[in-house]
Specification:
Elements lengths: L17 E2 L2 E8 L5 H14 L3 E7 L15 E8 L12 E4 L5 H6 L8 E5 L7 H16 L3 E5 L1 H5 L10 H12 L4 H11 L5 H21 L4 E2 L9 E5 H11 L4 E4 L6 H8 L8 E4 L3 H13 L5 E4 L1 H17 L3 E7 L16 H6 L8 E3 L4 H18 L2 E7 H5 L1 E5 L62 H19 L13 E8 L3 H13 L4 E6 L1 E3 L5 H5 L2 E8 L20 H10 L3 E5 L8 H12 L6
Helix pairs in contact: 1-5, 1-6, 5-7, 6-7, 8-9, 8-13, 10-11, 16-19
GO biological process, one term: response to oxidative stress
Organism: Algoriphagus kandeliae
Protein name: 2-oxoacid:acceptor oxidoreductase subunit alpha
């Protein structure tokens, strides 16, 4: 039988807990040591307690990087607080490291600060002579950097309960962190049971034993213990990452076919979907490559059931010709792009917002499509439902641009209440109205009624060639002009239904920050912190990127300066050969400059890391000539 957590270590009164509003914690290790699972569990436990949570996975680019190396750092960051958490925060307050070398990669990324607690596995102090020397030198270096060091015999403690510490150290660390941050032990135990629910009772019990042992070790061996007050809500919440939200959104939208080819960081969305989509009446088709995947999806959508294909940047490049076919033939299709670093295979495990211009313009000729960008994990769920509706209403492909930050970040949000209007109407199999052409483009909207194979009188020949209203191949100049105008006019028709973006802060001021996608939390937090210091800074966040949300020019004109914040590349004026005249702008800035004829600046980088509030504040200090960082 599995032990009752009530009989295991419990909170003691031997120390006072320091009440804090939030904490940023990292667990870093070599690959395969379960650091992500430890952090995901800590985040889930905290969310279930009513705390705000945001997690960011730290994943090396190589599948099996060298052990004990700077490049091999694998792990997770967990930010948890009393209030809603929307981004990864600035510097870590406490780090658990399963070896000291992986810390250097994070130090290079400015993840820590003087005063950060480093809890380091000390088995390396008595390992080989070479390792022991490196360990000692690193510990001294960390002290010089101002970190507080705790050397911990993690492996020794774990071996009291399991024969292979590598397979249990993460659960021991989870117990330790639960004690240090006053996490509910019963919730933690239930989380461990859930993680290993498909294993036998012996494995579940050994992991519970490790959890309790780590909790008890923290009772006896640390001077610092914290508590983060929580705010329980009467509303039901769910806890998941963006890819899980995407997968549930697919099913909530009534999409029955997902065709894909595995690619990081999108694949886990289909893994999550695979567990339940068949019970919802759908299927996942794993094709032999990216081209076949979208071809299958286009075929399914042509047959009447709008399909989805899920991929990342390199997959979008391979799918381009079929995307063009769907636009020319006006076939509804949902395409989810979980962006990563590029170009080519680029940074497979790192975050970037580098696909915007490729999605907007990466096709021969004029190829308009709808492009949405969710900014939260909750929006990842709802935007798939919206995408399916728009695809069918406007007979066009609809892109949903997420990224690796949203894909792997864990956050609680209110449990969605299923609504009948989320699902598609039954297929119309009534006879096709005589005299109505298959592309009978409305003069005002460009929209035409969609025939479904099997409708009596609705048969037509599908073509990717230029065609007339009857789908006959046609090269007449007037016909092609009319067809291109009609496909473009659909975007204008959709734009008429949109509202201007909400301004966070005052409606006028010195600086307006503009973002899209996963940068929202960092932008809004940085702007709020700047306003607390007296800065006249506001922000807006764009969800519709094609068509662009209305009213932007009027909003921009009320600010002295407008600047985008993005995770993609832009030149820095003053770098070798870079001038204001030849500078290349970040992608949204470039797009907005063209759309609004406004002189828009940009803050961007391609470090492969999520944007942090402090990075934005550092730029705001220069722009506004104010001290904004304590």
């Amino acid at each position: 039988m599995i032990s009752n957590p009530a009989s295991q270590p419990s909170e003691t009164n031997r120390f006072e807990r320091t009440k804090i509003k939030e904490a940023v914690i990292e667990i870093v290790s070599d690959s395969g040591e379960g650091a992500q699972k430890c952090g995901q569990s800590l985040g889930a436990i905290s969310a279930k307690m009513g705390n705000g949570v945001w997690t960011v996975e730290i994943i090396p680019a190589e599948i099996q990087p060298p052990a004990r190396s700077k490049a091999g750092a694998s792990g997770i960051r967990v930010r948890m607080g009393s209030n809603k958490i929307t981004n990864m925060g600035d510097h870590a307050d406490l780090v658990v490291a399963l070896n000291e070398q992986v810390l250097y990669g994070r130090i290079d990324q400015n993840a820590y600060k003087p005063g950060t607690y480093l809890l380091i596995e000390n088995k390396w102090a008595t390992h080989t002579e070479e390792t022991a020397i490196a360990y000692k030198e690193s510990i001294e270096h960390f002290k010089e950097l101002g970190y507080y060091i705790f050397e911990i015999p993690m492996e020794k403690e774990c071996l009291k309960h399991v024969s292979d510490a590598k397979k249990g150290k993460n659960m021991w660390v989870l117990g330790l962190l639960c004690n240090l941050y006053d996490r509910d032990l019963e919730i933690a135990a239930n989380q461990v049971k859930y993680i290993f629910r498909k294993k036998d009772e012996k494995i579940i019990q050994s992991n519970l034993d490790l959890l309790f042992a780590g909790y008890e070790y923290a009772n006896e061996n640390f001077p610092m213990h914290f508590t983060i007050p929580s705010k329980l809500s009467e509303e039901d919440y769910v806890v998941m990452n963006g890819n899980e939200a995407i997968s549930l959104g697919v099913m909530a939208a009534g999409i029955e076919v997902c065709s894909m080819y595995p690619i990081t960081p999108a694949t886990s969305a289909t893994h999550a979907m695979a567990e339940t989509i068949e019970s919802a009446g759908g299927i996942i088709h794993q094709a032999e490559d990216e081209i076949a995947a979208i071809g299958f999806a286009v075929g399914a959508s042509y047959a009447g059931k709008t399909a989805v294909t899920i991929t990342s940047g390199p997959g979008i490049a391979l799918k381009t010709e079929f995307i063009g076919l769907a636009i020319m033939a006006e076939i509804p299709l949902v395409i989810i792009d979980v962006q990563r670093g590029g170009p080519s295979t680029g940074l497979p495990t790192k975050v970037e917002q580098g696909d915007l211009l490729a999605v907007l313009y990466g096709a021969p000729g004029d190829a308009p499509k709808v492009v949405l960008a969710p900014s939260t994990i909750e929006e990842c769920f709802h935007f798939v439902i919206l995408a399916r509706k728009l695809a069918e209403s406007f007979r066009t492909p609809v892109f949903v641009l997420t990224d690796a930050n949203l894909a792997t970040g864990v956050q609680p949000f209110p449990r969605p209440k299923i609504k009948a209007e989320w699902f598609p109407e039954p297929l119309d199999q009534s006879p096709w109205k005589e005299g109505v052409k298959v592309y009978d483009w409305d003069k005002n909207t460009g929209i035409s009624k969609r025939p479904i194979p099997g409708q009596k009188g609705g048969m037509y020949t599908l073509t990717g060639l230029a065609h007339d209203e009857d789908s006959h191949v046609a090269y007449d100049p007037a016909i092609n002009q009319r067809a291109v105008e009609s496909r473009s006019r659909k975007l204008a028709a959709l734009r008429e239904t949109l509202k201007p973006p909400t301004i966070h802060g005052d409606e006028e001021g010195d600086l307006l920050l503009v973002g899209w996608g996963s940068t929202r939390g960092a932008i809004e937090e940085a702007a709020e912190r700047a306003r607390e210091k007296g800065a006249k800074v506001s922000s807006i966040h764009l969800r519709f990127l094609s068509p662009m949300e209305p009213g932007l020019k009027n909003i921009f004109d009320k600010f002295k300066k407008v600047m985008t914040v993005e995770i993609n590349y832009s030149d820095t004026v003053g770098n070798p050969l870079i001038t204001a005249e030849n500078r290349r702008y970040s992608q949204l800035a470039w797009y907005l400059r063209a759309q609004t004829l406004t002189d828009i600046d940009c803050l961007s980088n391609v470090y492969g890391q999520p944007m942090s509030p402090i990075q934005i504040l550092q730029r705001l200090e220069k722009e506004l000539n104010l001290t904004l960082i304590d």
